[in-house]
Design goal:
This protein is of the alpha/beta class and 123 residues long. The protein has 5 helices and 3 strands. Helix 3 links the parallel strand 2 and strand 3.
Length: 123
């Protein structure tokens, strides 16, 4: 995470602009343990402060476990209010194209198509 953080912070400085961050979690990924969650939470807190304009978490999968995990994550975000109007949870890339396009002020469809072609997104 340290290397990723440094890379995106450098890109933000080079572009002189905050970036949007989209994380895609495969349906096959394990649920993060408490230590992993703390690291990810700190990544978001530090990123929001320094280089992130907005973030999305795409948590793929359509079975009951994945639906429950999305609901739990969304519920924690609502209860803690830590990432209001900053972090959103989605089931698929397709479901956030409109929101990402609004932030970019241009059609994000080609970006999501490229991410699918490269295996970064399933849907």
């Amino acid at each position: 995470m340290t290397l990723l953080f440094a890379q995106v912070q450098e890109a933000s400085a080079r572009l002189n602009s905050k970036l949007i961050y989209i994380a895609s979690v495969s349906a096959k990924s394990k649920v993060p343990d408490a230590n992993d969650r703390n690291i990810l939470n700190q990544f978001l807190l530090d990123g929001r402060r320094t280089w992130m304009e907005q973030a999305w978490l795409i948590y793929e999968g359509s079975d009951l476990q994945h639906n429950l995990q999305r609901v739990i994550i969304s519920g924690v975000l609502i209860l803690t209010r830590t990432f209001d109007n900053f972090l959103s949870v989605a089931k698929s890339g397709d479901s956030i194209i409109k929101d990402v396009s609004a932030v970019l002020k241009k059609d994000a469809t080609p970006l999501f198509a490229m991410a699918k072609e490269r295996g970064l997104l399933v849907s």
